[in-house]
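Hey, resending since the last one bounced:
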Amino acid sequence: MTPPRRREKGLVRSYVVTDGRAHPTRNTLDIVTLVNAVTTRPLSGLTPERRAVMELCRGGALSVAEVAGHLTLPISVTKVLISDLIDSGHIIARAAIPRAELPDAQLLQEVLNGLRARL
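The structure tokens again:
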């Protein structure tokens, strides 16, 4: 018995979408990096995949992972596309808001002990 064939997700290979490149032009993109489209830039001359990224990001800031999920593209391919769009001025990227650092548990315990000693 032959195993069922795995269905291909797309007709175009990833290296065709990225013009044969495996790495983005900048190494600053993370999966939680937020990207937003510059609405004043024209979409003419963009490939269908880059145009799809622009149309997604025009609605507001999305993370790189969200863009990849909507387009059903691998993260690495999405990073290459977004990096190209940043270089051409179509996309603005900013790092995600960092998590707030919690105070040291030992310091909190000492404060609690000090308050209990006074009361």
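Strands lie at 34-37, 62-63, 91-94.

Sorry for the duplicate.
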